[in-house]
Structure formats: structure tokens, C-alpha cells
Amino acid sequence: MAMEKKSRARWVLPGLGVLLIFLMLAAAGVGRYMVPFDKVVSILSSVIFNVEQHWTDVEQTVVLNIRMPRIILAILIGAGLSVSGVALQALFANPLVSSHVLGVSYGAGFGAAIGILLSENHLFIQGMAIVFGMVAIALTYSISKTGKGTQLYMLVLAGVIVGALFQALISLIQYVADPEEKLPSIVYWLMGSLGGTSLKDLRLGIPLIGVGILIIFAIRWHLNVLSLPEEEARSMGVNLKLLRGLIIIATTVITAVAVSLSGIIGFVGLVIPHFARMVVGHEHRVLVPVTILMGGIYLLLIDTIARSATAAEIPLSILTAIVGAPFFAVLLRRTGGGWHD
Amino acid sequence: MISMHHGCFEYRQKEPIFSDLNFHLNKGETLSILGPNGVGKTTLVKCLLGFQRLKSGEVQFEGQPLEKIPLKQFFRRVSYVPQARNVVFPYSVLDMVLLGRASAIGLNARPSKEDMDRAAAAVHRVGIAPLMHQSTRQISGGQLQLVLIARAIVNDPEVMILDEPESNLDMKNQLIILDLMEQLREELGLTTIINTHYPNHALRLGGKALLLGSGNRRDFGNTTDLINHETIRTYFHVDSQMVEWQDAAKTHQRIFPVGLAKEAV
């Protein structure tokens, strides 16, 4: 069984890579303003190569300046949230945790809500989200710290406490916010959307989320060690503190930045890792890259539907679950949870 | 090789699990730690491995205090075999054994060909080569215990510390574990420390024994001197009967529980 899954990884990985590239090209053409596939390819290759222009300037702007940033960001956020889920599942040796577990997303959501309350500046709102994401993890960490160091179960409990606190604070802000103007924008913002993504957002998203993903990717084999019971992991002679620290930092940055760019998106961080586990097994050297690609593909698909299915944008957090839930429910029934072998 | 000097440990103030505990183990020797449930056998093993810190006294490895030895070096020479439990993420047998090489693999590196070869050799050595690519969730408890032993020998350690490796296993699997321990002891010159519930396993493995009892009672010495119906009654509150037989090589002893001890000890 394990062997089958591992050898399956040999074609899963390149297959997913090709699929992702194809979907990127397709998504760049799809929308209220349709651009044919061949033109998308030429427009994109004209960035690097010298291609004679056989498309309109409007098409070029739509593909390059409006859709591509959004596509790239959707992939990064999907990949980042999913791989954070995998890393945290290994860290806590528990397949049921996701990027919400440390309270970071709700902290970041609270920061964004305050930002919206105080200002209309997009950058300010994003900055507040990131800052409060960090505040949340700092709170979680300091609550969980005891004389003997940090115990993992303490970290989970502290994360739940901090998450609950910030969820309540978000409600409080919504309660006091001006119901005509501020309240709707807070609610819409938290529901999540990549609409209005610009090149500026990429400057924030690519380096921060990218670095987070790269850190987890780099230490992926050691996630296997980390997922052992604490003392067994220690007896493997690895620096547990460093490994845990790296994962907490990477997942915090990814989650906070993702929330700052697209609101609180649930579901992805829990379900995509499990879907990947079902396909290639649990060995993290294979699981991590597959999860990254699957997460990217999933959120790209969802975001493309979100912006093109109806005249108005459908919020991401709604669509991730509405599209994802039936799909994964069927999958779960079909396999009978068979990925745990 | 490994020794404890005036070791004292307590979870709660003034309620010592053990205190002023001393023993010394030479290279290649075997130590069986025996005692009733809850007396602190596992705690003692955790102290030997540095998972728990002694309240006072010290553990020494080749004359050096445990705290002074870098983690990486220590665990390359001293390996730990926990009791086989359910695995959270079912890696394949080979992948699981490969984890034993973690201290030799850089943080952002992956296992080399040499690491893979060593892991495969360890799997062969414990006799489960056909299971190499099986999931660790689809093998039996006894086989999983062998996997954990394979993981513990993958770095050619000098000391192996086992925490009740045979407790949950049936007779045959218990014997497989004991045979393997003897085989490894011989082939690799391993110094072995085992926590066990079975005096007979200590008798079979020979070497030294450490008896732990309530009220900070303890005895340390040669297994054959230490285990008899009197000590079994004192430590386990059980009446027992010793059986002896001889074969060409040596005299064997086993002890069997007969009933609960009548008089309070």
C-alpha cells in the first residue's frame, strides 16, 4: 500500500505541475471579458520573448495586470494555507489541526476589522492584519509557556483560547461598527475575496508567503521526525526547538499574510492535506510538494469560479466550502477514509 | 559506560519517585529494571535518556555528566526503543527506520543513498525484510516493535535503552524480541538497558538487574543473585517458585508466580 502510493507520486507530481500551468493559462482567459487561449499564451510569452502583437491592448491589460496577479496570489495562498496545515499536523502529531489552530487567522481577522474601522487605506488594513496575526501567536506562545518550556497540548489549548478571544473581538467590532458603511465592508472583507488584487499585493504576497512555503518545503523530510511522539522525536537527535520554531514562524507568516490579502479562508488547510495524503500517503518528502500543488490548484479553481460564475463576486470562504464540501464528502464516502493505512 | 550517582527524582515536592539511586553498567553489560507498576521504572528510563531531569544527582555517560553531552552526539551513541503503540502517521517500515538517521541528515537535506542503505540493512538485521515497504499501520504489534528496534540500531549505537518492548506481545513475539536482543548484544557489543515486567526475561537476558519497590526500596546486582522467591515476595508481593534445568551450555532458571503473598511484607 505504502509502496503503491509512493510510486504513484512519481507521476502525480509532474501531472499536478502540468495541470497547474494549464489551469493558470485557462484562468487568465476566463472571465467576463473572454480572451482566447492562444492569445493568452502569446500575451504571456511576450513578457519574455519578442512576439508580434496580434491582440488588443485591452486584452493585454486584462491578462497581465488584472488576472495574472490574482491568479498568482490565489495559487500562493492556496498552497500556503494547505502546506501550513500539513506542517502543523506534523508539529502536533495530529491529523486534525489546521492553520487556525494557533489563533493566528482570527487575530489577523481582528486586525483587519480594526483597520477597516479606522481607515480606508488598503495597505493600512493589511498591515493591521499582519500585526495582529503576530500579536495572536505571541499571546498563544506566552500563555502556553510554563516553567518547563512549551508543551504541545498547552500550545493547542492556548491557541484555542486566543482564537476564541479574537473571534469575540471581531464580533464586538462588528457590533459597534457603523451598520451603513463599515459593517458591510468588514463582513465582506472577512468572507474573503481576491477581487481588486493588484501588482502591489504581489509585492507583499510573493516574498512573505513564498518564503513561508519555501521554509516548510526545505525541512520537509524532518516533518516525519517531528510527527513522532515528543520523546521519540527527541531521541532521533534532532533540534526540536529549532524545527518547531521554524514551522511556527512559517505558518504564522503564511496565515497572517493570507488573511491580510484574502480574509479568513477555512477548509483548505484541513481538507487539501488529507486529500493529498489519500493520493500519495503520509511521507512528508512527497506529501509536502503534492500538497503545495494541490492547494494552489484548488484555490485557483475556486477563485476563478468566484469571479466568473456570476456577475457579482462570490466570497471565497463561501465558495471553498460550498464547492469543496460535496466533493470531499463523496470522496470520503467512496474511500471510507481509507487513506489512514 | 553508563551510570547513575545519587539520582533523585520527584514529580511533586517531597514525594520522591526514587532517591539516592546508584548503579553502574560496563560496556556490553545488560541491565534489567524490574518492579511493580507505578514504581518509577519508566521515569528512571526517561532520566537516563535526559527526557526528565533529575532533581539531584547525575547520570554519567562514559564518566561525563549527561547535560554536558551535545544532544546529537548522545543520541547517536545511545538509542531509545519505546513501547510500540499506534502510529499517528503510518509511514512505510523503511521510512520509519530511516528516521533513525535524522541526526545525520541536514535540516534541509534529504536522506542519502548511504542513509537508505543503512536503514535497509537494519530492517534486514531484525528479520523483517519482507515488510520493508508495508505501512506501519498494517503490521502486527510485534512487527512494529521490531521496526522500532531496527530504527534504534541504524546508527550502530553503543547503548540501547528499551522501555517494556515486550509487554504487549504474545509469547512467540516476546521470544522473538528477546532472541533479537541477545543477537544484537553479541553482534554489536551493545550495552543494553531494558525495562520489563517479567523477572523471567531478566533471568534469560542475564547480566545485571535493578529491582525497584515502593518506599524507595531497591537492589542492584547480578540477576541470578537478585531474583529469588524472597525478593519477588518483597518487591511484587507474590509467592513464587523457582525452576531450574540444565542443558549442555549452562543452567537455566525461571521463576513462576504461585499466588498473592499472604503476609504483608
Q: Could you outline the blueprint of secondary structure elements for this entry?
A:
The complex is a heterodimer of chains A (341) and B (265).
Chain A: H1 2-29, H2 37-45, H3 57-91, H4 104-118, H5 122-144, E1 145-146, E2 149-150, H6 152-176, H7 182-191, H8 199-218, H9 220-226, H10 230-235, H11 240-262, H12 268-280, H13 284-308, H14 316-335
Antiparallel strand pairs in A: 1-2
Chain B: E1 2-12, E2 15-25, E3 30-34, H1 41-48, E4 56-61, E5 64-65, H2 71-77, E6 78-81, H3 93-98, H4 113-125, H5 141-153, E7 159-163, H6 171-188, E8 191-195, H7 199-205, E9 208-212, E10 218-222, H8 223-226, H9 229-236, E11 238-246, E12 251-260
Parallel strand pairs in B: 3-8, 3-9, 6-7, 7-8
Antiparallel strand pairs in B: 1-2, 1-4, 4-5, 9-10, 11-12
Helix pairs in contact in B: 4-5, 5-6
Tags for this entry?
heterodimer; A: 341 residues; mainly alpha; ABC transporter involved in vitamin B12 uptake, BtuC; two-stranded antiparallel ribbon; 14 helices; globular; B: 265 residues; alpha/beta; 6-stranded mixed beta sheet; 4-stranded antiparallel beta sheet; 9 helices; 12 strands
